[in-house]
Design brief:
73% of the residues lie in helices and 0% in strands. The protein has 5 helices and no strands.
Length: 130
């Protein structure tokens, strides 16, 4: 059980590291890229890019070749990262189910009540923002 916990903790650590390195800022877009998008001169591949480069990469004077290679790398890792996200989601679900087996029936009822209250509160919040 301890080794499984360590494994999960390691997976979480790796995932957090990867997600942290993908953190994005609005300052990453260079004026050159903005000009291309504004003028409509961006080629089809560039216009289909979904995510900007990691933090500060857009501010260090990358040439077009470097930028293209970095986007290719990022796209390749995105598939692996998404698989890890799904695996993490499943591990958390499995963990929570196992933890609930240790609860008494009263504790399970109270846990369900708390979860329902949280859902109700989450649904109320968007209404108050209007």
């Amino acid at each position: 059980m301890i080794s499984r916990t360590i494994g999960i903790a390691t997976l979480l650590g790796v995932l957090m590291f990867l997600l942290g390195s993908l953190r994005l800022t609005a300052d990453e877009t260079t004026s050159k890229t903005k000009e291309k998008q504004t003028a409509g001169a961006a080629d089809e591949e560039t216009s289909t890019r979904r995510k900007p480069l990691p933090t500060y990469f857009g501010m260090i004077g990358l040439n077009d070749g470097q930028r293209d290679q970095l986007y290719e790398m990022q796209d390749g890792y995105e598939v692996r990262i998404e698989k890890l996200r799904e695996e993490l989601k499943q591990l958390i679900k499995e963990r929570d189910q196992k933890m609930e087996t240790l609860l008494t029936s009263g504790q399970k009822i109270r846990l369900k009540e708390l979860r329902n209250e949280a859902k109700a509160n989450a649904q109320k919040k968007p209404e108050t923002k209007e």
